[in-house]
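Continuing the batch. This is chain 6 of the set; chains 1 through 5 are on the previous pages. Same settings as before, nothing changed between runs. Recording input and output for traceability.
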Amino acid sequence: MFTRLSAAIAAICLVGGGAFAQSAAKPTDPQIAHIAYTAGVIDVAAARQALARAKNKDGRAFAQDMVRDHEAVNKQAAELVKKLTVKPEDNDTSRSLIKRASDKQVELSKLSGGAFDRAYIASELAFHRTTTSALQTLLIPSASNAELRSLSETRLKAFRSHEQHAELVALALK
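Output for chain 6:
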């Protein structure tokens, strides 16, 4: 059911940008909750890797922001799904995101110094562009629950802000 959506996410993650295919199947609220939560967990894991390996102070500060912001929003998401008695539903999209993130962590683990710093920020920039696009064009419009839509809109603002921050750090690392 979500093969096209998963393929779109995988393709976007691989090229680092673009928009989701408008013809992709619309996810359900439980699937949206899982996708959004998964995106936050992925970013926290990437940031923790960066905190252990990054040398650049701006890259480290960015990673600290990612841990703080994504853990806070994921806490809100967990509280919301509990309140709504919605059980987040694993799906092809969230599995695809996890696979791609795992591959990226392995790739980054082979780098050090400035090469790691640049690759981490480039990866974060691509991830935030992808997630921003997904939230804006697919996840928010597909959400039927107003509170889930509102939380997704909050996430969209955060991802946009993070994207801008990553762009600034990337420019400084060149």
